[in-house]
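Summary for the funding panel

The consortium committed to producing paired sequence-structure records for every protein in the target list. Below we show the first two records in order, beginning with the earlier of the two.
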Amino acid sequence: MAVAIVSGFLAFYWLWVRPANPVEARLREINPRAVEEAPSQPVATLIVERVAKRLDQLTPTPSPRNVRRLRRRLIQAGYFDENAVTVYRVVRLIAALLFPVGTFFFMTFILGRAVDTTTIGLTFISVAYGLFLPSFFLSRMISNRKGRITRALPDALDLMVVCVEAGLGLNAALQRVGREMELVEPDLSEELAITNREIRAGKPRDEALRNLGDRTGVDDVKSLVAMLVQTDRFGTSIADSLRVFADSMRTKRRQRAEETVAKAAIKLIFPLLLFIFPALLIVLMGPALIRIWDLFGAIGNQ
């Protein structure tokens, strides 16, 4: 107990007197107000990241190609932190360790089974589940985020058309649309904000737009980026191109809605067959079957 208390005190003391970040120190010299207004990370986040870095050293180092692929998936899921890869790998390691321990404890101590081949086999299978579940949940998060961005894109394009036709440039229109959609569609607003920061930092606009398509992984956004790059390269009207593209996006959204409605009738067949029809048969045919059973019983007694 004393060791745990002393360790916790030392951990918090180290976080409190940790060395200053040289980037923050330099920014404070240039613009102290900007550093004060910048949001700081919570202490819990710092503790998790530091513990994850320590535990990540126990795992084998992955290849740079796998690291790039994993970082791209995490960015598509909305995790832009530089330590996201380390935290994800540590989560996978902890899941791969906790699942077999929990399975073995449940089989032996709760169910009271002996340590046989079934228990050992389920323990090894749970290791695979522990390694698979983080990747599964990450894929689901990527799919949900892509769906939210896809649904928000037509409305964002309509706002962008209004802004461009009102006289704003493309950069100002992107910034304005991202700010207007912050409360309604935060995912797309965050992506547009990152694109604006890249352009303001000096990155060419076509490169920043291509990064937008790569970060989201949405085909419609990639088509929009290709259209904007070609329009900027050939000098055609951005307002006309955006208006045509917005019309096509509204048509695609209506077609997706019609497709979803058409699929609903097919998807309802399985719940009807498995849950609703059996209950209806029991309610409708149950009393008749009981009467028939009693009638045959009376005939047999005679």
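The next record, for a separate protein in the list, is shown here:
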Amino acid sequence: MSTGVDHEAIAERILERARSLGADQAEVGIQTASGLSAEVRLGEVDTLEYHRDKGGSVTVYMGGAKGSASTSDFSEEAVDNAVAKACDLARRTSPDPANGLADPDRLAQAIPDLDLDHPVEMEPEEAIERARACEAAARAVDERITNSEGGEFSWGRGTVVYANSHGFLGGYTGTRFGVSAAVVAGEGGSMQRDYWYATARDLAELEDGETVGHRAGERTARRLGSRRISTARVPVLFEAPVAGSLLGHLVSAVRGSNLYRGSSFLVDQAGEPVFTEGVTIREEPHRPKGLGSAPFDGEGVATRQRDLVADGVLTGYCLDSYSARKLGMETTGHAGGVHNLFLLPGQRDPQELLRELGTGLLVTELIGMGVNNVTGDYSRGAAGFWVENGEVAYPVEEITIAGNLKDMFKGIVAVGSDLELRGNVSAPSVLIGEMTVAGQ
């Protein structure tokens, strides 16, 4: 799985070339990746794809002006041309005092080993069989499962290197393995589909395909017989797999680019209670084998653990160097996004949350992106289950849930114990006291 690329040599050549062309500062990012994806449908191979990608980007600064260029060709001529293009663009661009590299004292001084790289030599036949086993397990759950969107198994390995003219040069390599299945069930003229997946840095820790497939089949079959419901104001329980989307909206609202433009409902809210007391949202960039783990951000700034929300209070924002300067603040190490952000779990399992919900809606799927980042207004299509007296009554579909994120965050009445770290942003089940559920 080696890419045969000398990342450091290419980075050093780019920086030297930028200096020779008059750049005050320069930075370079290089990424290489390879991997395999096998998809089967109804037991037959549908797609078998191997990829091997590489790319590099260079940004130069001249008197406060910025120019960027990229290339997928690492020959000396192509690299030199990319640097020359970036410098030419900088000369044609207006200066901005917020431009420039991250301050030297914010750069990572050491690169910790986060145990991200677990390469496995795997033949295509093994990937196919893993995908086939996952799909077969899903189809075997219920005789009403009559069709399939397929089972998939994939692996990949990639290397990231970043360097700049402050003398920083760092990189790391990571692997990722994934397995998934999506199937279709039918009954009485009604069709339903659902899916499940698992992903891990280490193949030895990846949930087995049969378990993943079985869960995909169960999730599909339980949706048969879905009904419409009448519009009402009721409690809403977000199942863990979809509750993480609430954190995604939070991250968008505290992103520096949205804050300095004034296009966020959380402008000037740092230090204020934004969530219910007891809610803590933590970021752990150095979690071993974490799917979002990184020793430094996209500017070489050291990442660090922090509570973005502590006991309901928003402690700060997610800033890169440019947005921090625009806001008169300092970078928080978030060039490129957050790293392993999750809502700390509570003590109650999903059944206890259903009993606390009483009568209302359990959301298991969200559709569309009807969220206004400026006002916090929230309206998304949904599917799930109607709950009565703390018990699931029947599946529901073709509904919309609506509210405002400011009210929703402060309206959290309980957080579940069912946290699963299956991605970069994760949450357990979240119960919100009241939302509008629009149906018939």
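Regarding this second record: The mean pLDDT is 96. The two ends are 54 Å apart (CA to CA).
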